[in-house]
Amino acid sequence: AQKVTQAQTEISVVEKEDVTLDCVYETRDTTYYLFWYKQPPSGELVFLIRRNSFDEQNEISGRYSWNFQKSTSSFNFTITASQVVDSAVYFCALRSGGGADGLTFGKGTHLIIQP
Amino acid sequence: KAGVTQTPRYLIKTRGQQVTLSCSPISGHRSVSWYQQTPGQGLQFLFEYFSETQRNKGNFPGRFSGRQFSNSRSEMNVSTLELGDSALYLCASSPNAGGRTGELFFGEGSRLTVL
């Protein structure tokens, strides 16, 4: 069975601080996909990034960066110079290469950026 | 390009009733997935449809069902509602099905309250 763990239930930082959201996953599949989604108060989940299990390159997109390490089964997400608009619930998710069972989500991390 | 549209956005039902939720995917997307989000269980996969066929199903009782029409619009139905069915039901669409899927595009959800 697949599992995604986001140990941080809630994080509160002051604007402009850097913050890292942790994600640890479990799967027996050799081919799988990892995702990060952002859920603002409106409810819809907004896609941020997808990584496949064969691509361990870290990625940077503006103030966002992702660190994928297969050796520790982690896919962490860092926001640099956080802004109030970054406040949301962030979900890490996993999907097997075969696509069965849809996405397995972590419980989410509620990120609060204080002005 | 219009996003994923879910109707109704909010609804209240009583135990024992049934409910039908509707989802219109992004134009050109042929895959529709449904997820249930509750405070206790988080986000859980319900089912996925592609070209009018159910491809995958999550671990939910038979009271939860769905279908997809030839125009890719999808409906999900919950019969004999229970208090625990109170949740945000999220629909997501993508161009492809299964593991080859890139990101999922989510709607804002239908919030069901069962009294």
Question: Mind explaining what this structure looks like?
Answer:
The complex is a heterodimer of chains A (115) and B (115). By secondary structure, chain A is an all-beta fold. Chain A is 0% helix and 53% strand. Chain A contains no helices and twelve strands. In chain A, the strands form three sheets. In chain A, strands 2, 5, 6, 10, 11 and 12 form a six-stranded mixed sheet that branches. In chain A, a hairpin with a 4-residue loop joins strand 8 (64-69) and strand 9 (74-79). The mean pLDDT of chain A is 92. Chain B has 115 residues and is mainly beta. Chain B is globular and about 35 Å long. At the A-B interface, strand 5, strand 6, strand 10 and strand 11 of A face strand 5, strand 9 and strand 10 of B.
Short description:
The complex is a heterodimer of chains A (115) and B (115). With 115 residues, chain A is mostly beta strands.
Q: Overall mean pLDDT score of chain A?
A: 92
The N- to C-terminal Cα distance of chain B equals 37 Å
**Could you say which overall geometry of chain B the principal axes of the C-alpha atoms support?**
globular
Largest sheet of chain B: 7 strands, mixed
Report the structural category of chain A.
Answer: mainly beta
Count of individual helical segments of chain B? 0
Proportion in β-strands of chain B: over 45%
Oligomer: heterodimer
Number of helices of chain A: 0
Mean pLDDT score of chain B, rounded?
92
Number of separate strands of chain B: 11
SSE run of chain B:
EEEEEEEEEEE
Envelope shape of chain A = globular
Query: Main interface pair?
Result: A-B, 27 and 31 residues
How much helicity do the residues of chain A have? Answer: under 10%
